[in-house]
Amino acid sequence: MLNYIWSGLIIFSLVFALAIDSQELAENRFRNDAAVPVTVAFPDTYDPEARRQPIEIRLPPSEYRQFFEVDVSLDSTYEGTLVQTREGRQVQFSDEASLPEPLATIKSFHESDENPALRGTLTGAALSSGAARVTGGVQFEPVRFRKLNSIAQAALNFAETAASLALSLIGVLGLMLGLVKIGEEAGLVNALAGAVRPLLSPLFPNVPDDHPALANVSLNLLANVFGLGNAATPLGIKAMEDLQDLNPSEDTATDDMVMLLALNTSSVQLVPPSLLVAIMGLQINQLFFSITLATFFSTIAGIVGALVLSKLPWFRATAPHRVQSADPPPED
Questions:
Q1: pTM for the full model?
Q2: Domain locations along the chain
Q3: pLDDT, tens only, 22-31
């Protein structure tokens, strides 16, 4: 179901982005085919031999508002640099310049790590040696399909993040699953299952008394309680695999699996997560009681929600254990 939800959200976002991009192109919002009127002043006069020289850029307010059909406030001048190459002269705004819209959007669309500043080709300016001021226009690179490019870039960034996260969890996953296997061989998991059975059995009624799933569920909850998020992930996966072994259906989650998901997501945390500790340091102590109370009530809400939903007829009709018990016995 989550796959369908994510697919629907992605398709909706692409359609929405395409509609906005098409509107921007139809309205020619960024005036891709015209040069923005500017006045360029040279504090040290213009030097035709200099490859780079400082300039002051002035955007005439009335002409700028009429050109882009916007109502924005402009600074009197913007610091910049005139870059002269064989391809022509380029006006480059300062990286720290507070640009008005839509120049700020044009900058964000074209900026990169190598070239974070907004730059465009200087046109229509009659430059001569020793000139102090010229009037002309700046032609920027076209802005097309801005939203679609943003979605594509975000998808690539999150794909990279997902791959990095998966690789970073391999070591923790192997370590924790190895410790769980050692605990199973030593009998510690069974001993833990016997200790937590009175507390967890009412929440997981379909798990047999001698099954190690309850122990792995308790280990997952303990890891969450003590803020060990990376350790809780492999333990939760192991507990979910144990519950799937008891599941008569391959494509439908049981009530026990839903309860585990609710507990894992809303688990009580007595120790703040390690990520928050790394970010906030000792200031995390100010949030100790807030985190404990919030996670306590979220756990109660998760348990109540899972139990109530499991009693509803629509969910009861598709619960794997109830469906199995309702099937007639095979004929001889």
A1: 0.57
A2: 1-30+144-169, 34-142, 187-326
A3: 999 999 999 9
